[in-house]
Write a structure and sequence with these properties.
Elements: E1 17-22, E2 29-34, E3 46-48, E4 51-53, E5 59-61, H1 65-71, H2 80-86, E6 90-92, H3 93-96, H4 98-101, E7 105-111, E8 117-118, H5 129-143, E9 151-157, H6 159-172, H7 177-185, E10 186-192, H8 201-214, E11 218-219, H9 222-227, H10 232-245, E12 253-259, H11 278-281, E13 288-292, H12 308-343, H13 347-352
């Protein structure tokens, strides 16, 4: 018997910028989702109704390998009407599943133009990783003006992990308190298939992108260049992020999730291999590291709470949320104790009455 799908929640997700998906009254932390290259703030995390649940629990769509290949170099930008039509036909787990398991966390998703090629849709966005990181940093500042100090947990896929590393690197160097607060409030980053050391698949992507450009399509190779093995951009971001992570005491925690499969049905161009290999997707080699039995694109899509990938990712989120709650309880007890001492009569005042 197939597992029951949850009733979809009606939230229109913006293609660019932050969208609040869930905002409880008793919020203790923000969970922010950031998609990767060729991704989308909703579609990256959504599982279509025609998806199959693989052996490891993560969901994969029934699709031609040629459609998956095209997905490496293009993504059609949806309209609001397209978005609304899809609401009832997929499971968007950050909205449809996660709130029940993390009821006291605000959930947000961030979108940015990450296409490396645009098909019949005008010029491709020429922004780099650094531009996207600055956009997200300022968007978070504006979103959190009334809740500075609230814990932050990032869930990031592929290129989204590089962007978050640069966000924290920039935030830590800021003099403006509202920007510095992003770094100071970060409790954990969950990396899903992030190429910390680059990916050889970027070379394949560049080749496909050149084919698109030769056909007259608008392209942007800046993000692909940044994702190549031994990329200068990756080295700059990773070195700055490592300096933060290695501070004592450690300011935040890291969890890594690695893809266990290549792209099924695509044996040419090396695409049957993992998009991000285990060496590149490992942060330090000593962090909490798990595998998800899915390929690079489906490792972040879950149909139900019983999906093994969902249980692994949400289990880590809940561990970090429990830590945030413990810290808040300790702070509250300390404030109560301080208030009690301040309000209790002193020895001198007792004798003067």
């Amino acid at each position: 018997m197939a597992p029951l799908r949850p009733e979809p929640r009606l939230v229109a997700v913006q293609d660019e910028g932050l969208t609040v998906l869930y905002d409880p009254v008793d919020c203790v932390a923000d969970i922010v989702f950031v998609h990767g290259l060729q991704g989308h703030p909703r579609k990256t995390w959504a599982c279509k109704a025609d998806a199959e649940v693989g052996g490891g629990g993560s969901s994969t769509r029934k699709r031609s390998p040629f459609r998956g290949l095209k997905g490496l170099v293009s993504r059609k930008k949806g309209t609001s009407s397209d978005e609304n039509r899809e609401l009832g036909s997929d499971v968007f787990w950050p909205l449809d599943l996660l709130p029940a398991d993390c009821p006291n966390a605000r959930i947000l998703t961030f979108g940015y133009e990450s296409n490396i090629s645009r098909w019949f849709e005008g010029p491709a966005n020429q922004n780099t990783i650094f531009h996207h990181a600055k956009d997200l940093l300022y968007a978070l500042e504006a979103q959190r003006l009334r809740c500075n100090g609230r814990g932050l947990i990032f869930v990031v896929h592929s290129l989204g992990g590089i962007i978050i590393k640069d966000v924290l690197r920039r935030s830590a160097d800021e003099q403006v308190e509202s920007l510095l607060d992003i770094f100071k409030s970060t409790k954990a980053v969950l990396f899903l298939g992030t190429p910390h050391r680059g990916s050889n698949m970027a070379e394949t992507g560049k080749m496909l992108q050149r084919l698109a450009a030769a056909s007259g399509f608008s392209t942007n190779n800046r993000n692909l260049n940044a994702l190549q093995t031994k990329s200068t951009e990756l080295e700059v971001v990773h070195e700055g992020f490592m300096k933060l992570y290695q501070r004592s005491p450690r300011p935040f925690e890291v969890s890594t999730f690695q893809e266990a499969q290549g792209l099924a049905g695509v044996t040419y161009l090396g695409l049957s291999e993992k998009v991000v290999d285990d060496v590149s997707s490992s942060f330090t080699g000593t962090e909490r590291c798990q595998t998800i039995n899915a390929n690079h694109m489906s490792m972040c899509r879950y149909m139900t709470k019983t999906d093994n990938g969902y249980k692994k990712v949400v289990g880590e989120i809940q561990i970090y949320l429990a830590t945030v709650e413990e810290e808040e309880d300790e702070e509250a007890m300390a404030k109560q104790a301080k208030a009690g001492i301040a309000s209790s009569p002193t020895l001198s005042s007792t004798y003067c009455t």
